[in-house]
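Hey, does this match?
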Amino acid sequence: MLGYVFNPVSFWVAHDRDGAVRAVLAEVNNTFGERHDYLVAHADGRPIASGDVLEARKVFHVSPFCDVKGRYAFRFRFGPGRWLARVDYFDDDDATPLIETWISGGAETLSRAAVRSLAWRYRWFTLMVVARIHWQALRLWRKRVPFFTKPAPPAAALSRR
């Protein structure tokens, strides 16, 4: 808002002519102003069905409390009026994710009134996201969770698996 935005992750959905979801681009941003894109799709090109689990190797530094290793498991639910994206982070081969996160939303017709309404409803969104990230970082630091120095970003801006 007011010229500043921070979206930890944005999802761009690619549909084929029949409306089936073929790929999802997860655009990941860190608090250091860097971005990396993960292209999530089935290796054989088949459509992504609701509930399918697609994995990508973590190659981008997001948090100083997580090393750049492990994998992400992406799951999506595509409904007619509601959409959900879940991303679980596994730092090794354990069956239990270190971080579980999700975002959901509903479709809304784009109009001037809808844009004004969104600007009003989400006026504190960016500020609150950044505040919550730093609050969680403070809590982790106080618990003496190991701290990882930020490595150089990956050479490629896009990962496909």
Summary: Strands lie at 9-15, 21-29, 35-40, 53-57, 71-78, 82-90, 99-106, 158-159.
